[in-house]
Amino acid sequence: MQVLKTKIIAHLVQITLCCISFGAQTAEENLFGDDLPTPVKKSAEAGSGIKGFVQFEAARTTASPDHWSKLRTRADLSSQGKLSDNVKWKLGARFDYDAVYSINDFYNSDVQKDQRANAVLRENYLDYSAGNWDFRLGRQHVVWGEMVGFFFADVVSARDLREFLLPDFDQLRTPQWAARAEYFSDDYHAEFLWIPVATYDDIGKPGSEFYPNQPAPPGFNVRYQQELRPERNADNMNYGLRLSTLKNGWDVSAFYYRSTDINQTFYREIIIAPTPTLVYQARHDRISQLGSTLAKDFGDVVLKGEAVYTRGRSFTTLNAMDSDGVTPQNTIDWAAGLDFTLPAESRFNIQIFQRQYFNYDSDIISDKRENGYSLLFNTKIFNNWEAQATFISSTNRTDWLFRPRVTWSFERNWRLLVGADVFKGPPTSLFGQYDQKDRVYSEVRYSF
């Protein structure tokens, strides 16, 4: 244990020095952020210029063999303004280059090609206001849920999952090309959403650090086919309706969302000869979701809750006789949490959550009811130092994620972040599948 502690500390020092040495070359954080609460956040005044950040991120995986798993430079840039009093716009893009895929051969060529360099559009839209109506057309975030650590009611935005759920959610979310109309009347709000061409979760390529590898019995090889994305036609368009109200301090919403699932379902084929092989292909089911959220501010305590019923999604089955390796399971996911504002600029959040399967098939990996909880504590140590720790765990089995980190705002618009991600659990569990992916990491960011 002492050797392991010494090794982790050595890695932390190494990547922190690497980030500090790079800090003078980096540039800064988006002052507006990518997340857009509902109702739609109004654009900034015209002539706001270019906002954003540039940061350098380093991560080293500590499991054997230990290796650099990220040496990425990221620039996130945006600008917004208005064409008239009723028409506003926003443009944004992100550029990544990860040198880790150039300095070693730990990853295969498909992973290197996928993650070495990326240029993606972020939010790019037009806003139009007319009386009680607001319209937004273009690539945009649609945030319907705000629980800590997981996406429950936040069913619309796709996600870049090539680092699992570890990045901040404003970096994790991927905007959708959508048309959105919102109607406001006193304490009531209605939102209509249409996504003609959907964006789906990016899980990377087989062999990458956090690829969701599928189960295989001893003696079988595993092969992955290219992901099957839905055709761009009317049958695969997404649409939804969300209604909300604020009464006596209670913020309550309900929604219906019909979509081609942003999540991947891995369908399976078994080949016996010449070598027993499981062939998996990621596909996207057509699903329907009914959900609700609530929030209530009690002063120093905020209550939040979310629940989503999903129909049409399939899950991996361990039954070798099943023809495609998946079985349909309707589910309900719910979460409830309390957020406490504490003295000394501190915050404590506790959540409980559950997924329940209907018409339960005992051959799937999960139990009929999967239960868990999360704890988050955040506090200021000094004027420009902040510490945070997050712990998320299943109660069905030993399966958890622990995330301590420290942030130092050492100059105006500059920050240095140092942390660790520690996974524990069996190989088929949510966190345990990455049991050998423990890492230490650091970021230097300059915001402008």
Q: What is the share of helical residues?
A: under 10%
Structural class: mainly beta
The second-level CATH architecture is Beta Barrel
Largest sheet: 18 strands, antiparallel, barrel
The CATH superfamily turns out to be: Porin
Quantity of strands, as a count: 27
CA-to-CA gap between the ends?
A: 43 Å
Q: What radius of gyration results from the CA coordinates? A: 22 Å
The number of helical elements comes to: 4
Mean pLDDT over the residues: 91
Structural shape: globular
CATH topology: Porin
The low-pLDDT segments are 1-10, 16-46
What report would you give on this structure?
The protein is mainly beta. It has one domain (2-447): Porin (Beta Barrel), CATH 2.40.160. The protein has helices at 2-23, 100-103, 109-115, 169-172; strands spanning 50-61, 67-82, 87-98, 117-121, 124-130, 133-140, 158-159, 162-165, 173-174, 176-185, 188-197, 221-224, 238-247, 250-260, 265-271, 277-283, 286-297, 301-311, 314-316, 326-328, 331-342, 346-357, 369-382, 385-394, 400-411, 414-424, 439-447.
At a glance:
By secondary structure, the chain is mainly beta.
Task: Tell me the layout of helices and strands.
Blueprint: H1 2-23, E1 50-61, E2 67-82, E3 87-98, H2 100-103, H3 109-115, E4 117-121, E5 124-130, E6 133-140, E7 158-159, E8 162-165, H4 169-172, E9 173-174, E10 176-185, E11 188-197, E12 221-224, E13 238-247, E14 250-260, E15 265-271, E16 277-283, E17 286-297, E18 301-311, E19 314-316, E20 326-328, E21 331-342, E22 346-357, E23 369-382, E24 385-394, E25 400-411, E26 414-424, E27 439-447
